[in-house]
UniProtKB/TrEMBL annotation:
InterPro entries: MMPL_dom (IPR004869), Mycobact_MmpL (IPR050545), SSD (IPR000731)
Keyword Heme: no
Source species: freshwater metagenome
Cellular compartments per GO CC: plasma membrane
Cited Gene3D superfamilies: Multidrug efflux transporter AcrB transmembrane domain
Protein name: Unannotated protein
Keyword Endoplasmic reticulum annotated: no
Lineage of producing organism: unclassified sequences, metagenomes, ecological metagenomes
Topology in membrane: Multi-pass membrane protein
Predominant cellular place of this UniProt entry's protein: membrane
Length: 732
């Protein structure tokens, strides 16, 4: 592989104009296709085969004209304290607003609160249920704005009007997270290299990688339904790894030029050595992301595939565009000093750097380092023992949002369970007296614990299906509501034996519970798949048994500690207000799997970049202890910069108000902080020092069958000694 990448780097440097022109043409063509064929993204979370999804499809089949995927919303009206909505002026204003709501484009129906008895007992709060004749992603901002205009009569009458579900206008947030991440990355790189030009190259390739991923995913949305979170994950990862991969190649190039190598020869060798590590690091990330398909969750698989697509192009850009840009920049990319070192010491790592002092301390106190890190991470992991999973709703929005205000008003007026009703579907095919059986089923459900009300059944015209609305006494994310869903499903057999009705539970609350359960069930199989594949990949890369095992052990410590931190913040509320989280509860159900997939891939990045340099030193004749020290010293500065960049990129996503994006940003930033600085730069070097030469042990029989991919570039070093120094090659 080293020879192949060396040739690729040499070609990209020599034919730099051709390479850069080729990428420019690619961007233009992809951008044109995206504009021509782009589609829309879905906000729905559903999993085929679950009880809630099957029940929703049964309703659509038995009641023609209904679509369980159609958008719905709520408009909530509230009078002041001690006032009633039933008085003449206020009632007239609400009725006028409801009449206007029914005329809004794509609104199929708007319920009259007074006709549907949707008024609280004290008469202060009422709501209109809105049903759209379109999917949620097809309801535009213009139409939700029209809903707000339709309620002006109520607002002018002095009523508080709030909107929930698809009736709420979702204001697009500026990409402040990405901007802050890029700004911090630029500062870190400028400090690392002492040159704005050198700092700008990784930023450029990182941004271009995100652009390719975003355009590709948007183009794909024109041909298939994609979750609206697909681009968010791809942007997070694409920006972070795109910067890092170029950073590693650039750092190696600067080291070699500082040692006297010619520019183009150095570019080719940097791609052949550091590029090999980039390929393996990228492969581990892609494996982890593609592995999300084994979960059986469509929207999660889409997120993984979209991010994997972005990572693939980040690798390609770093291996081709980066050497072309370095060739164009020439000596300008290797100029500059840091605050504490001259250019050669910063690049070659021969001065008394912070990394050298740190690794000396870690090796000297290796057993203390191992014990302290292990105990600290185990302590951080303890809150994860009580981790619960769910999906966020309007109750998790910020307190200033109209969705949250509508949620709170409905809870006040109608009870906390009103925001999470359960739709019980009774299949009455073959039942002799459908009305009687449906009524008996409703009475049975009404007697269960945690049921506030069970509405009378509504039968379809054929009387072979009944819908019973069950309102829990507790909120949609409460443990008691989950228990109620399980209780109803557990009694399904008894209900069928007693009257013949086959009942199933659906609705948004039940769907969220099913998704969370599927996520929980997928954790161990997914973890086994990515860990197993990574062990094989790391075995091939390092030709060692213990190095892959310690890498995986460190990753597992990172995962459980990250679980503990996000549980402490988002579920228990410790420090939640500091990052703008006002409502705590179960963790977003997709978060644990995303943490495993993303942090695993990035953790292996650091492992490959650090340990490949140690392996290189060992292969070139250094003792095992010297290889640990020298390899770390050469890599520490750039890996530190990479870790800080990723943390800043992910931390930038804590700023948006969306609870899913915020929790993902915290989880990823925490995971990288733990893995980069506690695991890869402390625990792993300490373990490598303890294992000494045994770290590189591999059975002879296994050594013979494992392909030699030469990740450390030993063959390039050997060939260079055989043929002498390379001469510069003229470029195009």
């Amino acid at each position: 592989m080293a020879h192949l990448l060396h040739r690729l780097g040499a070609f990209s440097a020599r034919r730099r104009r051709t390479v850069l022109t080729g990428w420019l043409v690619f961007f233009v063509v992809l951008g044109g296709l995206t504009v021509a064929f782009k589609g829309t993204f879905t906000t729905e979370f559903k999993i085929p085969g679950t009880e809630s999804q099957n029940a929703a499809e049964l309703v659509s089949e038995r009641i023609p004209g209904t679509n369980p995927n159609d958008a719905s919303g709520t408009v909530v009206f509230a009078a002041g304290s001690g006032e009633r909505l039933t008085s003449g002026e206020r009632r007239a204003a609400i009725e006028e607003s409801v009449a206007a709501l029914s005329k809004v484009p794509k609104v199929a129906s708007a319920g009259d609160p007074f006709a549907t008895k949707a008024v609280s007992e004290d008469g202060r709060i009422a709501y209109s249920s809105i049903q759209f004749g379109a999917n949620p992603q097809d309801v535009t901002e213009e139409e939700t704005a029209a809903i707000e205009r339709a309620t002006e009569a109520a607002t002018e009458a002095g009523l508080q009007v709030e909107y929930g579900g698809s009736a709420a206008t979702v204001e697009a947030e500026a990409p402040i997270g990405e901007v802050i991440g890029i700004a911090v990355a630029l500062v870190v790189l400028a400090i690392t290299f002492g040159s704005l030009l050198a700092a700008g190259l990784p930023i450029l390739t990182g941004v271009l990688g995100v652009a390719v991923g975003a355009m590709g995913i948007t183009l794909a949305s024109g041909f298939t339904d994609l979750a609206d979170t697909s681009i968010t994950i791809a942007a997070m990862l694409g920006l972070a790894v795109g910067i890092d991969y170029t950073l590693f190649i650039l750092s190696r190039h600067r080291t070699q030029v500082a040692d006297g190598m010619e520019i183009e020869a150095s570019i080719a060798k940097a791609v052949g050595t550091a590029g090999s590590a980039v390929v393996f690091a990228g492969a581990t990330v892609v494996i982890a992301l593609v592995g999300l398909t084994v979960t059986g969750v469509p929207f999660l698989a889409q997120m993984g595939l979209g991010a994997a697509f972005t990572i693939t192009f980040a690798v390609l850009l770093s291996l081709t565009m980066t050497p072309a840009l370095l060739a164009v920049a020439g000596h300008r990319a290797v100029r500059g000093k840091t605050f504490t070192e001259d250019a050669h010491d910063e690049a070659a790592g021969t001065g008394p750097t912070m990394g050298a002092r740190w690794i000396a301390l870690v090796v000297r106190r290796r057993f203390v380092a191992i014990g302290v890190v292990a105990l600290a991470l185990i302590a951080l992991a303890i809150p994860a023992l009580d981790m619960r999973l769910g999906l966020p709703g309007d109750g998790d929005k910020g307190p200033a949002t109209t969705e949250r205000k509508a949620y709170d008003l409905l809870s006040t007026g109608f009870g906390p369970g009103f925001n999470g009703p359960l739709t019980v579907v009774a299949d009455l095919q073959g039942v002799r007296d459908p009305q009687a059986v449906a009524s008996a089923t409703a009475r049975d459900l009404g007697g269960l614990d945690d049921v506030a009300t069970a509405a009378p059944p509504v039968l379809n015209p054929q009387e072979d299906l009944a819908i019973i609305q069950v309102t829990p006494s507790s909120g949609p994310s409460a443990t008691a509501t989950e228990d109620l869903v399980r209780d109803i499903r557990g009694r399904a057999g008894d209900i069928e034996r007693e009257g013949g009705a086959k009942v199933a539970v659906t609705g948004q609350t039940a769907t969220n519970i099913d998704i969370s359960q599927r996520m929980s069930d997928s954790l161990i199989p997914y973890l086994a798949v990515v860990v197993g594949l990574a062990l094989v990949l790391l075995l091939i890369a390092f030709r060692s048994i213990l190095v892959p095992l310690t890498a995986i052990a460190g990753f597992l410590l990172t995962i459980v500690a990250s679980f503990g931190v996000v549980t402490l913040i988002f579920q228990e509320g410790v420090g939640a207000s500091l990052i703008g989280v006002s409502q705590t509860g179960p963790l977003v159900s997709l978060l644990p799997i995303l943490i495993i997939g993303v942090i695993f891939g990035l953790a292996m990045d650091y492992q490959v970049f650090l340990v490949s340099r140690m392996r290189e030193e060992f292969s070139h004749g250094a003792s095992a202890q010297d290889a640990v020290r020298d390899g770390f010293r050469h890599s520490a500065r750039v890996v530190t910069a990479a870790g800080l960049i990723m943390i800043s990129v992910f931390a930038g996503f804590i700023l948006p108000t969306d609870p899913i994006v915020k929790s993902i940003g915290v989880a990823f930033a925490t995971g990288i902080l733990i893995d980069a600085f506690l695991i890869r730069m402390t625990l792993i070097p300490a373990l490598m020092s303890v294992m000494d030469r045994h770290a590189w042990w591999i059975p002879r029989w296994l050594d013979r069958i494992v392909p030699n991919v030469d990740i450390e570039g030993t063959s390039l070093q050997r060939d260079a000694k055989a043929v002498g120094p390379a001469s510069p090659v003229a470029g195009d």
